[in-house]
Predict the structure.
Amino acid sequence: MLDRRELFHRALLAGLGASLPGEALAAGLAAAVQPQWALALGDVEADISPRPLTRLHGRVPADLAGTLYRNGPALFRRGGTAVNHWFDGDGLVRAFALRNGGATLQARFVDTAKRRVEAAAGRIVQPGFGTPIRPGAVLGSADDTNAANTHVIAAGGRLLALWEAGSPHAVDPLTLATQGPVTFRPDLKGMPFLAHPKVEASGRIWNIGLSGANAFVWRLAATGALEAGQLIRLPAASYCHDFTMTQRHLIIVLQPWLHETDEMPFASGMRWRPEQGTRVLVIDKADLTKQRVFELPALFFFHLGDGWEDKDGTIHFDGAFDDSPLFATETASALVEGRYPRTERPLLRLISLHPDGRAQLRATDTTAEFPRNPGGNAGPRPTFHVGGYRPERPFARSIGRWDWQRGRGVGHDFGAHQIVEEFVPAGRWLIGTSINLAARATELHVMEADHLDAGPVASFRADVALPHSFHGSWLPG
Amino acid sequence: MKTLFPLTAALLATMPATAATLTVNFTVTDAPTGQIMLSLYDNEAAHDRGGKPVRAAAVPVKDGKAVATFEGLAPGRYAIKSFHDIDGNGEMGTTPFGMPTEPFAFSNNAPPQGGPAPWSASSFVVDGDAATTSITIR
């Protein structure tokens, strides 16, 4: 269905067609054919200097002051070349600061080796998740291709811009200047560090880093200093973007999308083997050699929610699951070109692992992605998630809250003109961003976690449209 | 990456009739300590497929520089694989996943491409009496 913008472009070009040189006409036609949602994979050409956001409606709650940091790929193209996958764009760290009832935005690219090599070359050359190696590439270590684009967390007074196959990059929380890749210990330089570390109530940080069927288990203090690191062997060389945990256990979900050969791009070496099913590895935090394996049908996932354990020892966790890896292997590449070849329908599902070895799967028919849980007690908590996926275009348009205890959900639909990104719990509030396709601008919304169906209590609009971000953190104060 | 530097003693070739001296100048920017360990290859098969170098050396780093000299070389093409042994333990440091933790570089400053630079990018000619080549390690 063409919208008015596309009709206008086509009419304009029809009128100008006779007088434009061939190249400009082709470029203009390409622009006209780009769908409206292509704004979500647009390029940011320079850092975004601090600027105020315009308040659209409502008021920032009096008890809410701090900064929402977010990360996501924001440069996909250089000099006529492009990355071949959504996940391979350069990371841009954004800071949305809420203070005195107002909001400001600042954003800076993470200064990575990848970005320096490609800026010097004027072209995309470094390989990635879906991008092949090209002449001019420099590939001495994993960090040479580190896009630092997936998540940003705070530890020890600084921000860490996370990726998954290499080091975190330290970033200054005030200026967003890059301090450099973090080496936790000299012999661990460049080791993989997933973009989804899990934080205990004490502030202790757990994470894993993967290489084939080998996993390195990271344990950091709340300051970000290394407490311990240990190598464990996994029963399968699965791609894991995320893992989860309870108070006592680490939980690694081993989906049947398996690393079988070393290739560039990374995804080319992976194979979908659904006949192997999904295995869930439960590891005792106090002794990583104590492991149990549970078996489930074949599922594909990027993101999992926080786990919890019942008194009888049953472990539960949810996640956003699909039936195949096609989003990773096809759709996320097509998105960079403005194509959406198949509908994505990730669904929220609960996995329960019983002490007798049984594993259960409970489904909803709620489309869901980017799940987040509020912190707090160790028991079950609501799952906040984006949703409302429809066939017409990629990405979410609504925010939802699902309670497994009650077996029901509540939410708010922002409308067809909004691309809704991850919302982050902040006390009794939820803070998140959207890309308003009609206004062609990024917006910031504050919602009450217990009353999502009332819509945002305050909304702000930036004077720029930033591409779709992945994950972020709220820092009060 | 583990076969980057076979740990062999230097091999002394019989002096050929016309012998050249190769001087290798290192600029070292990453750390002031330790030594540069290097292997000199005289053919593509040995260089690209895990064969033996014809010479090897370990030279100290001082004031951001190191120099290695090889005498009595037959004229021809050569290539160098080198690394900065920062902690001076005589070995390339590796992570638990086997990736190098100490910096390395190749002749012609040929870039690594997911492994050592190939002979086709890093080889250079040694002829006449004296040849020099430069490598930067960072």
About this structure: Residues 1-24 of chain A have pLDDT under 50 and may be disordered. The longest helix of chain A spans residues 4-16.
